[in-house]
Specification:
The complex is a heterodimer of chains A (475) and B (571).
Chain A (H helix, E strand, L loop, with lengths): L3 E9 L3 H12 L4 E5 L6 H6 L1 H19 L14 H25 L3 E4 L1 E6 L2 E5 L5 E11 L3 E3 L12 E2 L1 H6 L6 E5 L3 H13 L2 E5 L11 H14 L2 E3 L2 E9 L2 E8 L6 E4 L1 E4 L3 E3 L32 E3 L10 H15 L13 E3 L4 E6 L2 H7 L4 E6 L4 H5 L6 E6 L6 E8 L2 H13 L4 H6 L9 H10 L14
Parallel strand pairs in A: 1-2, 1-6, 2-3, 6-17, 8-15, 9-10, 9-15, 10-11
Antiparallel strand pairs in A: 4-5, 5-6, 7-16, 12-13, 13-14, 18-19, 19-22, 20-21, 21-22
Helix pairs in contact in A: 1-8, 3-4, 3-6
Chain B lengths: L1 E5 L9 E7 L6 E2 L4 E6 L4 E5 L4 E6 L6 E3 L3 E7 H9 L3 H22 L12 H6 L3 E6 L9 E7 L6 E2 L4 E6 L4 E5 L4 E6 L6 E3 L3 E7 L1 H16 L3 H9 L10 H13 L1 H4 L7 H9 L18 H26 L19 H16 L2 E9 L1 H16 L6 H15 L5 E4 L4 E4 L5 E3 L1 E3 L2 E3 L2 E2 L7 H16 L13 E5 L18 E5 L3 E7 L2 E15 L5 H16 L2 H6 L1
Parallel strand pairs in B: 20-24, 24-25
Antiparallel strand pairs in B: 1-8, 2-4, 2-7, 3-6, 4-5, 6-8, 9-16, 10-12, 10-15, 11-14, 12-13, 14-16, 17-27, 18-19, 20-23, 21-22, 25-27, 26-27
Helix pairs in contact in B: 4-5, 9-10, 12-13, 12-14
Classes of the chains: A alpha/beta (475), B alpha+beta (571).
Chain lengths: 475, 571
């Protein structure tokens, strides 16, 4: 086929970055074509990431709570887990969401082409559909939103169906007796939590001195305490040196501090050491787009690549690889294409780990302040002083504020505890609006909720927290 | 075929002239380059050669008329037609021709309608004709009073960009504010010689711009191409916006430094205390929010702060524009037409002097008061006490003595020790006595300031003056040595001359010029006696100082020179 069609804006990849970009572009009246291998938009986030994992984590939480209920005088029998049905339900969630997006594409009259795009030059792509038919599309502008995929360590790669990545782990083929998670980042911990709740004996191995590298230690400490109970063990400062596929599992050799057994057999191994951008195989060499050493596409603050007609957003445009960052970038890129004077300049990108308890942070972390040598004041409000946390029997939480002592501005917020992911949004707003501690302190928060911990930690700045007696140190 | 002959380009800066004589009349046959008119311009009488050959059909001007460049003065019939005409002058042809003439006359008034005023003014014509594919060095313009350098905060254009006059090209951060630098002409960016973070000086060549017809037609072509696509409006919008686009300005350094910057988005830019809506507003109106001072708690920036800041920037720019207008309006002729020239860049002192004095001259209504002081006695005293000053390491010069005398005069006439604040409609009176002394150095004029004169005696002043002059000549003056003056003295007596009118060193309001003292016959007590008389000139800011006060001031100075005792008495 040698069809040549034309479009003003080609959006390549329909994940949360790509579809947000395409939708806004259509709303702004641009002629948009979306190219994506799936039938409906969604990308990794909806098909193989955020959404299915959250469905499973919801179930994991329920299972955990039935166990905890024993303390409150309610005893449930051990759950009878129908993996097939659970998988179907999870798939159904994905289907509903992606189907809904498909509807929105139609309603917005966006041209959707199912296939993979390959750049022929700065204004032309070749699209190969599932039947290997080829067509060509000319565009004035393109938004590159092809995302990322799980990274591999080639030296450790074994050819075994027992070696999982985030995608296959989410497929939930079965519940292995033992599971090793390589990499203590958020994906590994979330998937480890799911499998642990379903009954697997989960071990985690992390190369760095702590799980969730980069996050604040006081938050991690609380999370780790809970994970230590749920997981078999968490090895930090440790790494896998060798893996060998067996008929009934994978034999793994370790090296490092926390390692008690140098050689262990696991039913399955989940490799979650990070993700790498999908910038290869796109024909970017036929354009002026530049990539860095890690394969991320180099963009300016409007997300424009070195090729003036091509923009890049989301995972392919750099860290942090988060869906909500991608959507925001998608909006910025499209507005830039539409001629608006905009830039990607967030002051806080929230990060959430959907473990149990959840952990979330936004803006400056204490760790970063230390690295920058920046003088900050940190307020920590332990959830043991929160009425709401007590009623939920979830005092395993902490709300912290990082404040500039001069301007009293909120620079960062970190939360560990049930529902931290929901609570962090207030921190993002506070940081973006340049709120100071007085603003937070004087905003009435509903009682009894966990959100009060935010207000009370602000009160702590003045040594006036209602539920904690900790007079302010005299300067 | 009638041809209109218009007044051609007459030379640089000549837009009109008076017809001194008309050398042809209707029916004359004219060769190309034959003189048809003599024009008297304010520079010379010029012969205007014809650009066409043909028969003069009508002369539309007569002697004494004022004509402008581009005005139609003669209507010709083209040569070829004319050549045939005399050969066979049949009645038919003639009448046909007359008919044609009639027609043309009917249409002429219409063609004539562009009155001289509407014609393209001369000053623009050389640009459009000569400018075909001309590259222009774009230099950092004046950024305001006392600002002579800045660092490049942001470059808003890239190589290949089409720019329009007044499009913002870059943002410069000076020690006072961030200034947007607009394009002075439309064109295409050829070359960017700077990068963000660079220090640039006023006058530094930073961009090369091609101003040309070709650039314009290119834009046209591009637009045409775009109209083919349905969604063209949005594209043209981005194309014409001065935002970064097309080829990267400096591919090599950018590609290596940029990724890192972009990777840590949160780290690089300071956390500005402004809400996203406010930040976006600032971006939309072309301001960098980082530079906007916030008035809220903890320096929080509200939308009002952005507006106030923007207004201030515009006022600053408007102020610097008005100062420059009078200075830069005229284009320079091509001097090399008349002989060999070479161009040298101004040094910093020259540049600052030129800018500062233009500012002073254009903003201050100057008047100069002249007088002469009899310094016969003073000279005797100066010789007598000279060794004392030498002992102290100074030199008892007239300037040193004048410092003390002016201090006395400033005390007696406080409006001379003042500055004007026109914006607030206030006069600022100063209660300290600092006087600048113009020093002639290799690099040019420098004006070190002798401070707190009231606390020093003449010997001390002579010593300090000597030190400052030496520092000036050795290029060792610090900026603060040249700041804080209330009044200036320029003594050219050492060189000679009978009188000159110095320019007030704004924001001061007066300056004393000293010329060479000469022995003069003075009629005294019924006879002429030789007296040493020193000519003095006092230029002053007439906004603040009235003529009578200036006369009194200068008289007092003369009297103090003549009778030094007056200084102790009144000073």
């Amino acid at each position: 086929m040698s069809d040549i069609t034309k479009t003003h804006l080609a959006v390549i990849g329909a994940g949360p970055g790509g579809y947000a970009a395409a939708f806004l572009a259509a709303d702004l009246g641009l002629d948009v074509t979306v190219i994506d291998p799936e039938k409906n938009p969604g990308g990794v986030c909806l098909y193989r990431g955020c959404i299915p994992s959250k469905a499973l984590l919801h179930v994991a939480k329920l299972i955990n709570e039935t166990r905890e209920a024993k303390k409150w005088g309610i005893t449930f029998a051990s759950p009878d887990i129908n993996v097939q049905q659970l998988r179907d339900w999870k798939n159904d969630v994905v289907k509903k969401l992606t189907g809904g997006l498909g509807q929105l594409i139609k309603q917005r009259k966006i041209n959707h082409i199912q296939g993979r795009a390959h750049f022929l030059d700065s204004n032309t792509i070749e699209i190969i559909n599932e039947n290997s038919d080829k067509s060509r599309l000319q565009f004035d502008y393109a938004v590159l939103a092809t995302g990322s995929r799980p990274a591999k360590i080639p030296a450790l790669s074994v050819d075994s169906p027992r070696l999982l990545n985030s995608t296959s782990a989410l497929n939930l083929e079965d519940v292995p007796k033992s599971l090793l998670v390589i990499g203590g980042g958020y994906i590994g911990l979330e998937m480890g939590s799911v499998y642990a709740a379903l009954g697997s004996k989960v071990s985690v191995v992390e190369m760095m001195p702590n799980i969730l590298p980069g996050a604040d230690k006081d938050l991690i400490k609380i999370l780790k305490k809970s994970l230590d109970e749920k997981f078999d063990k968490i090895m930090v400062n440790a790494k896998v040196t060798n893996m060998k596929a067996l008929d009934d599992g994978i034999r793994v050799s370790f090296e490092g501090d926390d390692v008690h057994q140098n050689n262990q057999k696991f039913d399955k191994v989940l490799m979650s050491i990070g993700r790498q951008p999908n910038s290869d195989g796109l024909g970017l060499e036929n354009t002026s787009v530049k990539t860095d050493q890690k394969g991320f596409v180099v963009v300016d603050d409007q997300r424009r690549t070195a090729d003036p007609s091509i923009y890049a957003i989301g995972d392919i445009a750099g860290e942090p690889m988060l869906a909500h960052k991608a959507s925001h970038e998608g909006h910025v890129a499209v507005e830039a294409i539409a001629g608006h004077k905009v830039a990607f300049e967030p002051q806080a990108i929230p990060a959430v780990v959907f473990t149990n308890p959840e952990m979330a942070w936004a803006g400056l972390t204490e760790e970063q302040a230390k690295q920058q040598g920046r003088n900050v004041e940190v307020m920590r409000f332990p959830w043991a002083a929160s009425g709401r946390a007590l009623t939920m029997d979830r005092t395993d939480g902490l709300t912290k504020l990082i404040v500039d002592p001069e301007t009293e501005r909120i620079l960062g917020m970190g939360i560990v505890g049930a529902g931290a992911g929901e609570l962090i949004a207030e921190g993002v707003l506070a940081i973006e609006m340049a709120a100071n501690v007085t603003d937070l302190k004087l905003s009435i928060h509903p009682h009894p909720t966990l959100s009060e911990t935010v207000m009370e930690s602000a009160e702590m700045f003045f040594g006036q927290s209602t539920h904690i007696y900790r007079p302010r140190r005299k300067k | 075929m009638a041809i209109e002959f218009k007044i051609p380009e007459l030379g640089e800066n000549i837009t009109s002239g008076k017809v001194a004589s008309v050398l042809v009349s209707a029916g004359d046959t004219v060769e190309e380059n034959q003189s048809v008119l003599e024009l008297e311009t304010d520079k010379a009488v010029l012969e205007v050669p014809s650009e066409v050959a043909g028969t003069v059909k009508e002369v539309k001007v007569s002697e004494g008329d004022e004509v402008e460049v581009g005005q139609i003065v003669i209507i010709f019939e083209e040569g070829q037609e004319q050549a045939e005409a005399p050969a066979e002058q049949t009645q038919d042809k003639k009448s046909a021709k007359q008919e044609e003439e009639g027609k043309e006359q009917a249409t002429q008034p219409v063609e004539e309608t562009p009155t001289p005023a509407e014609e393209t003014p001369d000053s623009e014509q050389p640009q459009t004709t000569k400018a075909a594919a001309q590259t222009i060095e774009f230099k950092v313009p004046n950024l305001g009073e006392n600002v002579d350098a800045g660092s490049v905060a942001k470059i808003l254009v890239s190589v290949g960009d089409q720019i329009k006059k007044d499009n913002t090209l870059l943002e410069l951060e000076t020690d006072k504010a961030v200034v947007e630098v607009p394009a002075e002409q439309s064109g295409t960016i050829k070359e960017i010689l700077i990068k963000e973070g660079d220090q640039v000086d006023v006058g530094q060549h930073i961009l090369t711009i091609e101003t040309s017809e070709s650039a314009e037609t290119k834009t046209g072509a591009q637009k045409e191409e775009q109209t083919k696509t349905e969604t063209e409006p949005s594209k043209t919008e981005t194309e014409s916006a001065p935002a970064p686009k097309k080829e990267e300005p400096a591919p090599a350094p950018q590609s290596t430094t940029k990724p890192k910057q972009e990777r840590s988005d949160q780290g690089k830019r300071p956390l500005v205390p402004a809400a996203p809506s406010v930040r976006r507003f600032a971006r939309e109106i072309g301001l960098d929010i980082v530079n906007v001072p916030g008035s809220g708690p903890g320096g929080r920036i509200g939308i009002e702060d952005v507006k106030v800041y923007s207004k201030r920037l515009h006022q600053q720019r408007a102020a610097s524009d008005t100062v420059l207008k009078g200075v830069q309006a005229e284009a320079l002729p091509d001097f090399s037409k008349w002989g060999e020239v070479d161009r040298q860049s101004m040094n910093k002192v020259r540049e600052t002097t030129a800018r500062h004095l233009s500012y002073a001259w254009t903003t201050i209504p100057h008047v100069t008061q002249f007088d002469k002081a009899d310094i016969t006695n003073l000279e005797a005293l100066r010789k007598q006490y000279g060794p004392k000053a030498e002992e102290a390491g100074g030199k008892l010069t007239v300037t040193a003595i004048l410092l003390k005398i002016i201090e006395g005069a400033l005390k007696k006439f406080p409006q001379f020790n003042a500055s004007i604040d026109m914006q607030n409609k206030e006069i600022i009176y100063k209660h300290y006595y600092n006087i600048g002394v113009a020093v002639d150095t290799e690099r040019g004029l420098l004006v070190p300031v002798v401070k707190n004169i009231n606390t020093k005696n003449i010997i001390e002043l002579s010593k300090e003056l000597r030190e400052l002059s030496k520092k000036a000549r050795d290029r060792k003056l610090a900026l603060e040595d040249m700041q804080g003056g209330n009044f200036s003295i320029s003594n050219l007596g050492g060189i000679g001359g009978t009188a000159f009118s110095p320019v007030v060193n704004a924001p001061e309001v007066a300056i004393l010029g000293v010329s060479r003292a000469e022995m003069e016959p003075v009629y005294q007590d019924g006879q002429f006696v030789p007296r040493l008389r020193m000519p003095l000139a006092l230029s002053y800011d007439h906004r603040l100082i009235d003529g009578a006060d200036a006369a009194r001031f200068l008289r007092w100075v003369c009297e103090a020179l003549e009778q030094p005792f007056l200084l102790s008495l009144e000073g």
